[in-house]
Model the fold of this input.
Amino acid sequence: MKVDRPDTLDESEARWRTAGDRIQTLLDACAASGPAAQERATELVREVVGLYGAGLQRIMQCLLQAGGPATAERLATDDLVASLLLVHGLHPHDVHRRVSDALDRVRPYLGSHGGDVDLIEVDGDTVRLAFTGSCKSCPSSAVTLELAVEDAVRAAAPEVSSIEVVTAEPGTPGVIPAESLLARVHSNGSGSWHPAPELAELAPGEVAGYRVGATTVLACRVGDQTFAYRDHCPACDASLAGAKLHGAQLRCPRCQTDFDAVHAGAGVNGAHLDPLPLLTRDGVLSVALPPREPVHVMGAPA
Done:
């Protein structure tokens, strides 16, 4: 299998993504010096944020007067700028538009699992969604909900405090809190996303293995879409190293079982590959792994 070592992420990009955590760490360190020091540090942060917010508001007014809607769209789609606009309440899109756009970004992944998601309504700080298709029958449905849909919604609309999933089955009306659906995942802690830009370099029809921490990830590209699975064949309990694509079918080189690479790895007689969420986050293709997996990413043969 072809393996490419990922390029090092731009340091400035990686740094701003964790700025909030670093600020909180510094505030916590100030708290160790006593209430007075903590209050002064908190007030300092508040004043700096207020000053930059006022300046950013004036900049936005000037830019929008000069550039109009096109400029607003460019600002809204830049991850760093959009995050600052959200902090200061200056984002040009309302919460309904931001949630809808976030769901559009995860739809290709849900489609690979034979499902979709509809935005029912945004009621105050509550978002109500309805899943359609076969998402809930997929073995990674809980991971899909938490690491794809919920992650995308909360990133786009941090003011949302509750995500509710409306049941789509006839005869069972009502609302299921996301927390209930995610109980199994939460019992093991939340999973996390790891940048894997090398997966985006796969050519159509190509299959490759990658090491993500202690996990071997098998990735393949069908048309213009990339899919990721754990390197394990459920039919013969062996590695998929050497697997090849036959159209959209990923064939195990040992037992010759075919799995539908496009539709969540479905195979014959109920056999099913273990799919891993694969989405573009902050402009970088990233793979989601359970919390037990280490963060370090490196290229290695599968």
Q: What stands out?
A: The longest helix spans residues 35-67.
